[in-house]
Amino acid sequence: MAVCVAVIAKENYPLYIRSIPTENELKFHYMVHTSLDVVDEKISAMGKALVDQRELYLGLLYPTEDYKVYGYVTNSKVKFVMVVDSSNTALRDNEIRSMFRKLHNSYTDVMCNPFYNPGDHIQSSRAFDSMVTSMMIQVC
Amino acid sequence: MEGLTLSDAEQKYYSDLFSYCDIESTKKVAANGRVLELFRAAQLPNDVVLQIMELCGATRLGYFGRSQFYIALKLVAVAQSGFPLRVESINTVKDLPLPRFVASKNEQESRHAASYSSDSENQGSYSGVIPPPPGRGQVKKGSVSHDTVQPRTSADQQEPASPVVSPQQSPPTSPHTWRKHSRHPSGGNSERPLTGPGPFWSPFGEAQSGSSAGDAVWSGHSPPPPQETWVSFADTPPTSTLLTMHPASVQDQTTVRTVASATTANEIRRQSSSYDDPWKITDEQRQYYVNQFKTIQPDLNGFIPGSAAKEFFTKSKLPILELSHIWELSDFDKDGALTLDEFCAAFHLVVARKNGYDLPEKLPESLMPKLIDLEDSADVGDQPGEVGYSGSPAEAPPSKSPSMPSLNQTWPELNQSSEQWETFSERSSSSQTLTQFDSNIAPADPDTAIVHPVPIRMTPSKIHMQEMELKRTGSDHTNPTSPLLVKPSDLSEESKINSSVKFASGNTVDGYSSSDSFTSDPEQIGNNVTHQRSHSGTSPDNTAPPPPPPRPQPSHSRSSSLDMNRTFAVTTGQQQAGVVAHPPAVPPRPQPSQAPGPVVHRPVDADGLITHTSTSPQQIPEQPNFADFSQFEVFAASNVNEEQDDEAEKHPEVLPVEKASDPASSLRVAKTDSKIEEKTAASVPANVSKGTTPLAPPPKPVRRRLKSEDELRPEVDEHTQKTGVLAAVLASQPSIPRSVGKDKKAIQASIRRNKETNTVLARLNSELQQQLKDVLEERISLEVQLEQLRPFSHL
């Protein structure tokens, strides 16, 4: 379903970004980058009192004609951004949530690996890659 | 014979069979006897068998070389599928199923055949044993067993031929033949005759058998030799030297091997009999691993933390990327720590990798930690170390057959997948725990949204309420939103309830039992919401369904409600914040006629709320019509300043019982009104002017009171102009017992502020007024109904 999946670190640099139609990669990268602003806005809007209550799933960040961008942020301010094709009308919110949950789980597994230094690019985890692929392949 | 193209699965299967038949571990020749057995097991008529043999050229050659064997197998498959046997058919028949052999020995094969999945590793490298490439720092694995090796004598010649069958070396433990994992670049040539040898790990001379051991299955990495290399992980030279010796000693291997293998022969025999898993860990290896584990973690049942494991495995000098992959594979429960089993698996993988074997994509079954004690994997039992965890019963049978290494690749995959939803409760539970992030949203912070109802205080102390009110007003004007929000719901619920005091108290936010307590305490409001039903026992039927209570503040302390209001204000913007702020101020006691109405509307329309509140002063005029403002005294005393104007106004209506002196009520109204105004003023600039509100709660109420009093009077008849009223009220402050003088100045200042806010809220006011009117009408009707249903019991 997803055409592009990105994991953004707390400092807003990408830890992992992958898009399916690789020829348009730059466009997706740019979309993810611009959606970070929306993510930040949603995070800050909660206010300090609500940090605990803040929902991890941010929902639709930014719809365009062709694509919709969804966001999810962890408690450590690591952001997951997912771009899905708008033609996939069947995609419901719950499905997006479950996809983010899977992403979060895989990300946690990557974190648990002692050989992964937090802040590194996530390139070593095959499980993570395969999970992302499974999410993206469903689209195509 | 034309070239034979085999699919991956076929390749794997055939090589397995070849190794099976290659009892002499020649890697080139399949023992005729075995081959014939195999063919017999294929349940083909003899003439077909003969035909096959002829076709493949074996009869010509007199023996079954690898290619012949493969062709023969393919022909068997062709025959079994019913196609005519022809030389061409081996390549033309597409999608041929793997040949099935029924004989007992071949059961495994057939089973494997069925479950074969293409294993890339198998490609070409059917090399049971990969002779450690000279020069490659491999640990020679002592050939633990050479079942097949023993007859190897002939193998020698072949060995020298290809001493280095595969640059990679140390064949994994696959007992003699499984080298699935091993990549053998030397594809077809793997002359590892040394299939049999168990993993030898001895760097020593006998390791030569290790070279045969090359084939040797890995499993045998004898701990001691490796220890030198392993423990330090930096000492590869010794192993490499060992390896170099291999080629030279190839010749000797057979003899050595036979000797060495003698000890392990039995073991290997057992293993070989069941196509051992190349990834199996032999006892020696296991012991070694356990010893290593002990050096890090003395308790064998304990865990090795990730950091310690990282250091340990970093010593192996493998690239971090690969170590990371190994960790991924071996940390089965993904907890960041290694149990003994996981550690052994990881160590095993490291050894394999160091010896040139590719890491599997999935953890081989034999390396999987035994999460559940499945004793049914008994036939796999011979295998030392971890027994493959048969995740699913379906896989159990195939996994049990300690068989084709290729299967192992699939097993782990299957196992893992099945484990994930079968027995791996641990795994799944751990993953599930991960997913609980989302649900842990609401903190148990009592200061923030308390979702559970707070018990009503049946005997609230007015003082307490007042204090709270003051505090609230002082702290944050936005707070009123919460009480207001709550109140509307309360009011709506209670609107019907004409019960007197009870209702009033209930309505007044805090479950005041006292009838004339208008505490707009947010908490109390919350209580009211929840409790009104309870304690306003008389409240009977909510003729009109109460609007849902404002979500955030079911019950929490005033301060918290204030905070909530503030945050709401933040999130929803000033306007809305103002709106939010207002509702809470609604008088807790829904006045039968008025309260429900406005309340009902209030929650519905945030803006309406604002206007509602803002128009509270204007409402006051309405309400006083049929309500006494006695309540307002209490109100004034209470915290309802915010927005309670509306409610306060309603209260007078709702609580006819409560009679306060008009002045008092007016005062209260005024106070509330003023409070509301202040609140509105405050709420609007809530975010900005928080500082101002806490200024002096006491004076404010007083101020408000003065104002409201004045406002009340003029506004009693006015619905609309708040500003004018305010001005009037402010201007004409009656002498009030409190410090009037300073109040006036403060009042004027506040008036100015209020005017500003009023202008902002003017529009909302009009809307709210409209709604108010509607609601009031409803309220009146409801009140009538209530009265009909229940005579003035509360009076």
UniProtKB/TrEMBL annotation, chain A:
InterPro entries the UniProt entry points to: Longin-like_dom_sf, Sedlin, TRAPPC2L
SUPFAM superfamilies linked to this entry: SNARE-like (SSF64356)
Claim: 4Fe-4S is one of the keywords in the record: no
Coiled coil segments of this chain: none
GO-annotated biological processes: endoplasmic reticulum to Golgi vesicle-mediated transport
One CC-aspect GO term: perinuclear region of cytoplasm
Pfam families given in the database record: Sedlin_N (PF04628)
Keywords noted in UniProt: Cytoplasm, Endoplasmic reticulum, ER-Golgi transport, Golgi apparatus, Transport
Cellular compartments annotated: Cytoplasm, Perinuclear region; Endoplasmic reticulum; Golgi apparatus
Family in the record: Belongs to the TRAPP small subunits family. Sedlin subfamily.
This protein's name: Trafficking protein particle complex subunit 2-like protein
Source species of the chain: Neomonachus schauinslandi (Hawaiian monk seal)
Organism ancestry: Eukaryota, Metazoa, Chordata, Craniata, Vertebrata
UniProtKB/TrEMBL annotation, chain B:
Coiled coil location: 754-785
Residue ranges, compositional bias (Polar residues): 115-126, 145-156, 407-433, 504-542, 562-573, 611-622
Name the record gives this protein: RalBP1-associated Eps domain-containing protein 1 isoform X2
Basic and acidic residues bias: start-end ranges: 670-680, 707-720
InterPro entries for this protein: EF-hand-dom_pair (IPR011992), EF_Hand_1_Ca_BS (IPR018247), EF_hand_dom (IPR002048), EH_dom (IPR000261)
Source organism of the structure: Neomonachus schauinslandi (Hawaiian monk seal)
UniProt keyword terms in alphabetical order: Calcium, Coiled coil, Metal-binding, Phosphoprotein, Repeat
Gene expressing this chain: REPS1
Biased composition (Low complexity): 157-168, 574-583
Keyword flag Lipoprotein: no
Stored Pfam families: EH
Organism domain of life: Eukaryota
GO molecular function: calcium ion binding
